[in-house]
From TrEMBL:
This is Laccase. It is found in: Secreted, Extracellular space, Apoplast. One of its GO terms (biological process) is lignin catabolic process. GO terms for molecular function: copper ion binding; hydroquinone:oxygen oxidoreductase activity.
Length: 574
């Protein structure tokens, strides 16, 4: 990778002079390329649901611009912040080998890019192939600051499935009538729940079922008898999503930047943070067919946005279109079984060209509970029956510090974090049968887990019912991991590992832990740095459902964190 970095630096002078967004250096060779992008963050006006508001976007677009590269390429993205808040950008699902400085989560690997400042990210695409995405990683700014990443096969290679006629990107999102930063600020002040979204969106539009929306519904025009590749990104804030197309089957061929054995289905279940590559063949009578996104939410006593977004698959040809596109119903909003059933069907391609290597000699085992909690407020003054709503991992709610964890680790700064995040919860009880002797009150702390380079890690995420059961999409920065097991109720170390899939488990970066259930994942800790692991539901992250894995350097320069960049955003507020 040293030669690649020299290549980048050699072009850096030209980068400073460039004007186009983006500039892509063309080459007739099969060598990796360097792509340059400018991201301009500023408030822009958008009209949805009969009203107009100003919101933070990149390059005045919602969703934001697409980053398009090939496997092995590098992207250099200069982010200019002309907004009102400090912001960082995360490259979701990109491993960034030895390069945690540019991973992006605020106060974990960097401090925020302050208003009026800029920061340049260097993003290496080394192992990923397929669809990923980028998004803001500061408070709730990702609601409006996000976009797709398309990673094509390296030059000289092709897809492991027939070449599609065309490719299109489908970004599933959330729309709030109010200002998202005001919404979360009020919730944090009162200790209560933030307002739910007012609509779900497909490529930025709510669709025909919402007021003032049918003139702007997203339409995908297709030719009969062709196969299309849909790159689906779930950027929704606080629910899982079922997605389907009326009268059409979907063939799932990729997830989270890795290929899968083809799975044919009439719906997909996608949780916040996940991406899917899906083939659709236009083999129906020429007409209009709804593409539908409807929510899955299995929490109890919690309000959520139970509305349905639509877009239209529009066949080309000479026919009389119906007055209303063909519709279909997806699984219900509380049908966790449908989501789990879909997830269990997914298998890595695991071919000669796309090998996998599942860790089998486990050296570190962790059981981590995903908990909904409370934090006591003075005089019972907060909105959750006098308490403050919270969430945690193993009953520790992560507290961010004014200096990022990566800087504190590499500079040996004291009093920023402790290294005692537990391998198992301190209190063991019937996790899915009530709170038992566990406290509903979590402990705020900045506890991290240290891992030696090369550790073979097995993590089991265990859902609980301390305050109430809920599904949790768990995301690990800096790694893709193998999902070797998934089930309901309490994980049993005696019987459940017997059914682990160690042959062709899916390799992903985000996985849903079902309410009253568990997920087992494995990975090799071969990427040194400080890497956030967290629930990707926005309210749960901000309430504390996260921790940090610090992976130590290996024995050589090639297994150690790259040098700190000469410029990083200041952690000072002045």
């Amino acid at each position: 990778m040293g030669s690649q970095l020299s290549f980048i630096l050699g072009f850096f002078g030209l980068f400073l002079l460039h004007k186009l967004v983006p500039i892509i250096f063309q080459s007739h060779t099969t060598q990796p390329k360097v792509h340059y992008y400018d991201f301009v963050l500023k408030d822009s006006n958008f009209t949805r649901l009969c009203s107009t508001k100003s919101m933070l976007t990149v390059n005045e677009s919602f969703p934001g611009p697409t980053i398009r590269v090939r496997k092995g390429d590098t992207a250099i993205i200069n982010v200019h912040n002309y907004g009102r808040y400090g912001v960082t950008i995360h490259w979701h699902g990109v491993k960034q080998p030895r390069n945690p400085w540019y991973d992006g989560p605020e106060n974990i690997t960097q401090c925020a890019i302050r208003p009026g400042h800029n920061f340049t990210y260097v993003v290496f695409f080394t192992a990923e192939e397929g669809t990923l995405w980028w998004h803001a990683h500061s408070d709730w700014t990702r609601a409006t600051v996000h976009g797709p990443i398309i990673i094509l096969p390296a030059l000289g290679t092709t897809y492991p499935f027939p070449q599609p006629y065309e490719e299109h990107t489908i970004v599933l999102g959330s729309w709030f009538k109010g200002d998202v930063m005001s919404i979360i600020s009020e919730a944090m002040y009162t200790g209560g729940r933030p307002n739910s979204s007012d609509a779900h969106t497909i490529n930025g539009q709510p669709g025909d079922l919402y007021p003032c929306s049918n003139q702007t519904t997203y339409r995908l025009k297709v030719k009969p008898g062709k196969t299309y590749l849909l790159r689906i990104v779930n950027a929704v804030m606080d629910v899982e999503i079922f997605f389907g197309i009326a009268n059409h089957n979907l063939t799932v061929v990729g997830q989270d930047g890795s290929y899968l054995k083809p799975v044919t289905t009439d719906y997909i279940s996608t949780t916040s943070g996940q991406t899917f590559d899906v083939l659709v063949t236009t083999n129906q009578d020429p007409s209009l067919y709804y593409m539908i996104a409807s929510p899955l939410f299995d929490g109890q006593y919690t309000p959520f946005d139970n509305s349905t977004s639509t877009s239209i698959l529009e066949y080309e040809g000479d026919y009389t279109p119906p007055s209303t596109p063909v519709f279909r119903f997806l699984p219900g909003c509380n049908d966790t079984d449908a989501a789990v059933s879909f997830s269990k069907r997914l298998r890595s391609l695991a071919s000669k060209e796309y090998r996998i290597d599942v860790p089998k000699t486990i050296t570190t085992t962790m059981l981590i509970t995903t908990d909904m909690n409370h934090i006591p407020c003075p005089n019972k003054s907060c909105a959750a029956h006098g308490d403050r709503l919270a969430s945690s991992l193993s009953n520790f709610s992560f507290v961010t510090r004014p200096i990022d964890i990566l800087q504190a680790y590499t500079r040996n700064l004291s009093d920023i974090y402790t290294t005692d995040f537990p391998d198992v919860p301190y209190v063991i009880y019937n996790f899915t049968g009530g709170k038992g002797n566990a406290s509903e009150y979590t402990t705020p702390a900045t506890r991290v887990k240290m891992l030696n380079y090369g550790e073979q890690v097995e993590m089991v995420f265990q859902g609980t019912t301390i305050v109430g059961p809920e599904s949790h999409p768990m995301h690990l920065h800096g790694y893709s991991f193998y999902v070797v097991g998934l089930g309901y109720w309490n994980f049993d170390y005696g019987s459940d590992p017997v059914s682990f899939n160690l042959i062709d488990p899916p390799k992903v970066n985000t996985i849903m832990v079902p309410a009253k259930g568990w997920v087992a994942i494995r990975f090799v800790a071969d990427n040194p740095g400080a890497w956030l692991v967290h629930c990707h539901l926005a309210r749960h992250l901000i309430w504390g459902m996260s921790t940090v894995l610090i992976v130590k350097n290996g024995p050589s320069n090639d297994t150690s964190i790259r040098p700190r960049p000469s410029y990083m955003p200041s952690c000072s507020s002045s």
